[in-house]
Amino acid sequence: QLSAQEAYDMSGARLALTLCVTKAREGSEADLDALERMFQQLGFESTVKRNPTAQQFQEELENFQQAMDARDDFISCAFVVLMAHGLEGRLKGEDEKMVELENLFEVLNNKNCRALRAKPKVYIVQACRGEHRDPGEPVSGGDMMMISKDSPQTIPTYTDTLHIYSTVEGYIAYRHDKEGSCFIQTLVDVFTEKTGPILELLTEVTRRMAEAELIQEGKPRKVNPEIQST
């Protein structure tokens, strides 16, 4: 169990911005509906923008940041959902032009967004990150962890941020033309059914997706999300 000082203060405003290219992405509306349901249940003020161009991805995020910094009330956290076709590190706007994810992430960092300093920022990215398809592998292997400790008086430029990608680097993300994407639908199911620390919930999302078999072009495929946390 987390003690009070280990958890973020969630008593303030919770804001969500969803930027979604629905054009040529069947199933996006099902994802938007599911997210809307989730944000409502979790008490978020939610804004949705459909079919942004590459430039509008950037502009809408900057508007979101400026509106937050202009508020007088206490803001607890922000969720940003980005849904589009993509390649590694880039998203494709409605106008087929590309926007760098790095530039979008930068808008809400500690330097550029005062309202969210030391507050959780969660980016949910539903997009392909390359062309690879994963047929799945038999299970084996281990993992490694590195930890370093210190408590500086300033905070780094990027902190308190979660980047949740629908797929690991270099891989395709799957979407069903009616039911929406496996990733968004699973995420919404877990976030609306369960409560607990967000990383535990995300571990559950990952587990469910790792167990799911997706049939694509008649072949079974695996896809699992990737979570980067600061």
Automatic annotation (TrEMBL):
A GO-annotated cellular component: nucleus
GO biological process, one term: cell differentiation
Residue ranges of every copy of the Caspase family p10 domain listed in the record: 151-193
Entry annotated with the keyword Nucleus: yes
Gene3D superfamilies: 3.40.50.1460
Matching InterPro entries: Caspase-like_dom_sf (IPR029030), Caspase_cys_AS (IPR033139), Pept_C14 (IPR002398), Pept_C14_caspase (IPR011600), Pept_C14_p10 (IPR002138), Pept_C14_p20 (IPR001309), Pept_C14A (IPR015917)
Keyword field: Coiled coil, Cytoplasm, Differentiation, Hydrolase, Nucleus, Protease, Thiol protease, Zymogen
Superkingdom of this protein's organism: Eukaryota
A Pfam family annotated for this UniProt entry: Peptidase_C14
Domain Caspase family p20, first and last residues per copy: 25-132
MF term (GO), any: cysteine-type endopeptidase activity
Residues in coiled coil: 84-111
UniProt-annotated location(s): Cytoplasm; Nucleus
UniProt similarity note: Belongs to the peptidase C14A family.
Subunit-structure text: Heterodimer of a large and a small subunit, both processed from the precursor; the mature active form is a p17/p10 dimer and the intermediate form a p20/p8 dimer.
PANTHER family in alphabetical order: CASPASE, CASPASE-14
Protein name: Caspase-14
Organism phylogeny: Eukaryota, Metazoa, Chordata, Craniata, Vertebrata
Gene expressing this chain: Casp14
